[in-house]
Design a protein that fits this description.
about 120 residues, alpha+beta, Trefoil (Acidic Fibroblast Growth Factor, subunit A), four-stranded antiparallel β-sheet, two-stranded antiparallel ribbon, 1 helix
Length: about 120
């Protein structure tokens, strides 16, 4: 996944991501490990680097447990996510439309666990 600041123009977002998170000469298509740079708090699009599609809450849902999926870019608030850093360095990822946090269903640690 690539994280793009929703307040920047789409044309500039890829270059912004590569420069900001990966450093000069970084490869945004490298999914081999975590990015060590901190992200600024704010509103972002989270985009699959393989498909180019952003992550959204399906059908702009606002209920707990609604499905999260990749979908064509519609610029809907259901495709915008607010990142808020916690004291321990982790982040809360909250959907702009629903106000609900992104989570792994049932706190499941297994491969293929559902994200909602």
């Amino acid at each position: 996944m690539r994280v793009m600041n929703a307040e920047r123009e789409m044309n500039d977002e890829y270059d912004y991501f590569a420069d900001r998170l990966l450093g000069d000469g970084g490869n945004a298509n490298d999914c081999s490990g975590p990015v060590s740079s901190r992200l600024a708090e704010g509103t972002y699009h989270i985009v699959n680097v393989n498909s180019g599609k952003p992550v959204e809450v399906a059908t702009a849902g606002t209920a707990n447990g609604d499905n999260v999926r990749q979908y064509a870019d519609t610029r809907c608030p259901c495709q915008q996510w607010t990142l808020s850093q916690n004291r321990d360095g982790t982040y809360d990822i909250t959907n702009v439309n629903s106000g609900l946090s992104l989570e792994v269903a049932g706190a499941d640690y297994s491969n293929g666990a559902n994200v909602q």
